[in-house]
Amino acid sequence: MTMELEAECPDCGEQTFYRAASTTVHLGKKVKWHCPNCSYGFVQINGIDSSAV
After folding, report:
1. Predicted confidence band at 1 (pLDDT cuts at 50, 70, 90)?
2. 17 is in which domain, residue-wise?
């Protein structure tokens, strides 16, 4: 799995997120992503992220 994710941070505008942690849960693969410039982070489970509205 990749260590970087290309996405725009809604707080500071940074274009790259870094993987902070990953594990397997009953719903699938859970990955935590964090912005290196601010404290913004989100979680993806099976490719669906928590920042999606």
Report:
1. low
2. 4-45
Concatenated DSSP letters of 15-43: SEEEEEEEEEETTEEEEEEE-SSSS-EEE
- Whole-angstrom Cα distance, residue 17 to residue 21? 12
Q: Number of folded domains in the chain?
A: 1
Distance CA 39, CA 27 (A): 26
| C-beta of residue 4 within 8 angstroms of C-beta of residue 17 | yes
* Interval 14-45: pLDDT, tens: 999 999 999 999 989 999 999 999 989 999 99
